[in-house]
């Protein structure tokens, strides 16, 4: 049988590996390299043992002239889609290096072209050619570790600074307005994601991404991601290119009665503490040749990588990676003092902890990790969301926004102030939900006053259903002291510019989980006059001075507390003298305002002012807060409030 005619597009970088593989398959009589497409000169020594392939920078013409049956595409990520379309249009099957494309839209475009052409497209996830994958799947199916609780992946490699200067697109998220997405998750450790997803058939429903960089690059070199699958399985991947040396990446499948560890770079599978078993691996080009010649089943057809591309898209759309401060790095230099490498000491242990606990970096008390999503307006960081705070149970742990800042950088929130340690920036807090304290602190007992009770609940983060620079959507579980879910919440938070200021939009919908109505009470409904706090609540800095509160028709705490005005403004002056103004606007259902100015600066919406609120369906409320520099007057506040309403 005649060898399959092959064109290689991209002879440099990872193309060297493919040239060596082509030499092996050429010697075996399976392939013949008939062409090399590259925009840079190809040194003759690179082609030793491969005959005299035609060289060209025009892929379409090269395929047609050489009558190539297979094109190996090893070009920069952002060129994959267009070149794949060219190869398919010229009548060539494809071995497409990972990641398949830079965007999900491009992936869909290539997938449509593959379907219409009737040609094959194999994706270069070499780990998916290993027999270790079906071996692990069989262990799971046979119940070797019981029901699967989750899948964790850990990877820690080292890369020198020169790794990011070897080509113009290295370490870039975008280049010349085109998506590149060359980060640790999507390129070096793309196999980590693809391998983990290959162990299950359930599609990915939601993805949470945390991106960081120690090197001076756009993209991530240290990252964690958590995927929740349709069957409830949690998959986490934690990786870094800033280790002290190469540590072989692995996938660990957590079961109720044991675990399976797959070291996907060496094809080793270990069940619990048994000796590892090494499985053979099929070369993907060899498999593609067998498919073209004999109809063998493709190991990694394009459609099999759609789950990976969903994660790739989540990384592409995520906020830009956060820098890891120099104080947490070890900088290595050469004898001339030039920086050669950045190392995060102990990062190999950190990614292992993530895989073991199925946790993101921000959940592992890492000093350089962000506590949650950062939101930006016009490129400026204006709010940070802590979604899994480490707090005592007596504070009724819950997610919160802090710090929140004006565009001028003035901080307008406070967390755990000495006067009320359970005040947490901007949060949703309710004193009594069917007998559980989701506010924190002591509980008001009729006829007795405030008492410490074992009734504190916790708002637990379940998942982010949207996560972007301008906000997020989140699912929360409101859990009582006994661990049982009382209610489920859907929360949406977004930020947007508003002239010289910006607006924070917070909406929440609460639904009971017990089958019984939710009964919402405040201390006021239990006999404490004026203490109707419970719902949306904003704690401003207690150190602020010259505090003043007003509505369109009232001024001062006594007049505004308990009013049902459509908007309310709170102004003050920061410790450094910088003035600020917050304008709170209720959108939709309107409640009375809970206001404190003299004792401390705080504004909230009172869900239960005089009597309990019984919720038989859903409770939905929305507050938009305008965050402004300067002390705005009543007319200015009225105009801005009208704009957001």
UniProtKB/TrEMBL annotation:
<keyword id="KW-0560">Oxidoreductase</keyword>
<dbReference type="InterPro" id="IPR029475">
    <property type="entry name" value="DUF6807"/>
</dbReference>
<protein>
    <submittedName>
        <fullName>Predicted dehydrogenase</fullName>
    </submittedName>
</protein>
<dbReference type="GO" id="GO:0016491">
    <property type="term" value="F:oxidoreductase activity"/>
</dbReference>
<dbReference type="Pfam" id="PF22725">
    <property type="entry name" value="GFO_IDH_MocA_C3"/>
</dbReference>
<feature type="domain" description="GFO/IDH/MocA-like oxidoreductase">
    <location>
        <begin position="135"/>
        <end position="260"/>
    </location>
</feature>
<dbReference type="Pfam" id="PF01408">
    <property type="entry name" value="GFO_IDH_MocA"/>
</dbReference>
<dbReference type="InterPro" id="IPR055170">
    <property type="entry name" value="GFO_IDH_MocA-like_dom"/>
</dbReference>
<feature type="domain" description="Gfo/Idh/MocA-like oxidoreductase N-terminal">
    <location>
        <begin position="5"/>
        <end position="125"/>
    </location>
</feature>
<dbReference type="InterPro" id="IPR050463">
    <property type="entry name" value="Gfo/Idh/MocA_oxidrdct_glycsds"/>
</dbReference>
<dbReference type="InterPro" id="IPR000683">
    <property type="entry name" value="Gfo/Idh/MocA-like_OxRdtase_N"/>
</dbReference>
<dbReference type="GO" id="GO:0000166">
    <property type="term" value="F:nucleotide binding"/>
</dbReference>
<dbReference type="Pfam" id="PF14100">
    <property type="entry name" value="DUF6807"/>
</dbReference>
<dbReference type="InterPro" id="IPR036291">
    <property type="entry name" value="NAD(P)-bd_dom_sf"/>
</dbReference>
């Amino acid at each position: 049988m005649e060898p399959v005619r092959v064109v290689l597009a991209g002879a440099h970088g990872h193309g060297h590996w493919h040239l060596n593989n082509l030499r092996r398959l050429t010697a075996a009589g399976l392939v013949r390299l008939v062409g090399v497409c590259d925009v840079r000169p190809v040194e003759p020594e690179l082609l030793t043992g491969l005959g005299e392939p035609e060289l060209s920078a025009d892929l379409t013409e090269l395929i047609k002239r050489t009558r190539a049956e297979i094109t190996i595409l090893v070009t920069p990520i952002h060129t994959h889609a267009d070149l794949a379309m060219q190869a398919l249009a010229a009548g060539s099957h494809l071995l497409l290096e990972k990641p398949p494309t830079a965007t999900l839209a491009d992936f869909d475009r290539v997938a449509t072209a593959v379907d219409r052409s009737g040609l094959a497209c194999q994706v270069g996830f070499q780990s998916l050619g290993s027999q270790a994958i079906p071996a692990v799947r069989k262990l799971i199916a046979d119940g070797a570790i019981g029901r699967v609780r989750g899948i964790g992946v850990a990877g820690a490699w080292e890369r020198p600074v020169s790794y990011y200067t070897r080509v113009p697109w290295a370490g870039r998220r975008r280049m010349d307005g085109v998506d590149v997405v060359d980060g640790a998750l999507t390129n070096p450790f793309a196999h980590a994601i693809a391998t983990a997803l290959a162990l299950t058939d359930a599609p990915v429903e939601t993805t949470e991404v945390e991106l960081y960089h120690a090197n001076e690059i756009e993209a991530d070199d240290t990252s964690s991601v958590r995927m929740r699958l349709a069957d409830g399985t949690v998959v986490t991947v934690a990786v870094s290119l800033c280790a002290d040396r190469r540590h072989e990446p692995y996938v660990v499948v957590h079961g109720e009665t044991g675990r399976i560890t797959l070291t996907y770079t060496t094809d080793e599978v270990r069940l619990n503490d048994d000796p590892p078993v090494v499985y053979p691996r099929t070369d993907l080009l060899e498999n593609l040749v067998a498919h073209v010649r004999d109809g063998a089943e493709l190991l990694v057809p394009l459609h099999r990588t759609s789950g990976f591309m969903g994660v790739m898209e989540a990384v592409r759309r995520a906020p830009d990676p956060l820098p890891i401060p120099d104080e947490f790095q070890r900088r290595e230099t050469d004898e001339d003092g030039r920086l050669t490498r950045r190392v995060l000491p102990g990062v190999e242990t950190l990614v292992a902890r993530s895989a073991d606990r199925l946790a993101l970096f921000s959940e592992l008390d890492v000093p350089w990790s962000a506590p949650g999503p950062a939101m930006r307006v016009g490129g400026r960081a204006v709010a940070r969301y802590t979604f899994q705070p480490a707090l005592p149970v007596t504070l009724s742990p819950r997610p919160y926004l802090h710090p929140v800042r004006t565009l001028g950088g003035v901080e307008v929130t406070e967390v755990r102030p000495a006067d009320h340690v359970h005040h947490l920036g901007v949060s949703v807090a309710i004193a009594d939900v069917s007998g559980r304290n989701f506010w924190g602190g002591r509980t008001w007992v009729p006829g007795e006053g405030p008492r410490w009770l074992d009734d504190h609940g916790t708002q637990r983060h379940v998942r982010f259903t949207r996560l972007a620079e301008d906000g997020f959507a989140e699912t929360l579980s409101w859990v009582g002291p006994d661990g049982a879910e009382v209610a489920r919440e859907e929360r949406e938070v977004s930020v947007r510019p508003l002239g010289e200021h910006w607006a924070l939009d917070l909406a929440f919908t609460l639904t009971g989980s017990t089958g019984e109505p939710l009964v919402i009470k405040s201390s006021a409904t239990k006999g404490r006059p004026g203490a109707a706090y419970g719902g949306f609540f904003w704690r401003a800095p207690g150190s602020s001075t010259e505090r003043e509160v007003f509505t369109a028709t009232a001024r001062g705490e006594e007049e505004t507390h308990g009013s049902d005005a459509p908007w309310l403004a709170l102004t003050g002056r920061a410790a450094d003298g910088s003035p600020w103004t917050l304008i709170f606007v209720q959108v939709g259902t309107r409640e009375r305002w809970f206001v404190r100015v003299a004792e401390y600066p705080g504004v909230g919406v009172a869900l239960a002012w005089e009597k309990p609120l019984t919720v038989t369906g859903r409770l939905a409320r929305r507050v938009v807060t305008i965050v402004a520099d300067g002390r705005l007057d009543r007319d200015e506040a009225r105009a801005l409030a009208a704009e957001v309403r």
